[in-house]
Amino acid sequence: MSLIEIIVLALIQGLTEFLPISSSAHLILPSQVFGWQDQGLAFDVAVHVGTLFAVIIYFRKEVSEILAAWFKSFGSQGTTDDSKLGWFILLATLPSLVIGYFAKDLVEEYSRNAWIIAGTTIGFGLLLWYADKTAKQIKTIYQINWLMALCIGLSQVIAMLLPGTSRSGITMTIGLLMGLNKQSAARFSFLMSIPVIAAAGSYLTYKLISEGDEFNIADIATGAVLSFFAAYACIHFFLKVIEKMGMLPFVIYRLALGAFLVIYLSM
């Protein structure tokens, strides 16, 4: 990989992992437009590690409080709002871990289908607009119940099976439709991404070790650092933007990107 490829792909991964605009839709653009080769397993691991550390460090206070309360819930102190949230994050994560394990070959086979990505980028962008426009958005993150957590978790599976859906986009959409306010829908989506990204990174690491791929340590270190800073900045500014402007800017962007992909693929 050239330095330009490393920089572009790492920034794309970091910026799009947590925005509701589909990272897969953006990652196919360099290969489709510039003819770049697949970045390889080592680079995938690196950018996953970078984005994982970004979300953990950004939400370090919430993560530490939830973890502490969750472990204490096994003892005599009983459940608290934070421990319940920990259980709901775990519940929301389970569908993707189970289905992702059994469907990983199917996901890898269709993950680069540009026409599917174009269609889902547009379709789920419109669904996000509908949720943002019509949902009540009155519940906080501590008002999530087991049914809401399960539905949001199942929606995450859709993103795994249909590239272009956007994991963060569909989970926020379902959160909004079930009554969460924008900040709570986004924060729950970000928090539940931690075990998912960790699991994906672990699986890719296992594949990397088992297949014995060679890699350049400088390349993957650069990718990890760039994806970390891009993801951290992305989370910070996204939470501020949705408070003032809602999801509309991201809906418009998704529709424009989807239209571009359709036009490009039709040429």
Can you summarize this structure?
The protein is built from twelve helices and no strands. By secondary structure, it is an all-alpha fold. The mean pLDDT is 87.
Count the beta strands: 0
- Strand residue percentage: under 5%
Report how far the terminal alpha carbons are from each other: 28 Å
Structural class: mainly alpha
Summarize the biggest pleated sheet.
none
Q: What is the mean predicted local confidence, pLDDT?
A: 87
Q: Helix and strand succession?
A: HHHHHHHHHHHH
Shape: globular
Low-pLDDT stretches are none
- What's the number of helices? 12
Determine Rg (CA atoms, Å). Answer: 18 Å
Helical coverage, percent range: over 70%
